Amino acid sequence: MSGEPSGVQSPDVVAARGAAMAREKLAQAKADAARRGQLPRREPRRRAAARRDAGDPQLFGRAIRDLLADRGWEQPLAVGGVFGRWHEIVGPDLALHTKPETFADGEVLVVADSTAWATQVRLLASTLVRRLNEELGDGTVRRVKVRGPQNGPRPSGGLRVTGSRGPGDTYG
To answer: Is the pLDDT reported for residue 72 higher than 60?
Structure first.
């Protein structure tokens, strides 16, 4: 033997075991990351991008965001997206009987197809404001205005009773 007590190891042996253990733990961490879909980068990190001239090409998404910001179209675009996804936001039952018509100065005008649904939307107005603000950002929508059906009195004709106004629940 080398003259050292039996339980003590040389510094070289300890260092070699430590390096082997570190390699093993690194391989295990990489395998865990690969299972989670978080693989380490293969390419070196890039430095911050140099300033671009106005004529230089840029990423399409960035160009669109810049265009929207320059023209002030960000909020109208977001509102249009909400109007387009109305059935997802309010649910299929409410969307079947209502539709958003305009958005101006923090007020959304919702049109209902009957007075009963118009009343229902008026009762749900505060919930609807909260839900729309979740989609558009706090404070964007301050009020929901509801309009019922706009079917005026029916024109008189051969099969109409003089003075009749038709069914009473369709006049908003």
So the answer is: yes
Complete DSSP assignment for 30-99: HHHHHHHT-PPPSSPPPPPPPPPPTTS---HHHHHHHHHHHHT-HHHHHHHHHHHTHHHHH-HHHHHHEE
Name the strand (E) or helix (H) holding 107.
strand 107-112
Average pLDDT, the chain: 76
pLDDT, one tens digit per residue, over 93-115 is 888 999 888 887 888 889 998 88
Q: Between vectors from CA 13 to CA 9 and to CA 14, what angle results, nearest 5°?
A: 75
Q: Find all residues with CB under 8 Å of 10, minimum gap 6, and list them.
A: 2, 4
Strands 98-104 and 107-112: antiparallel
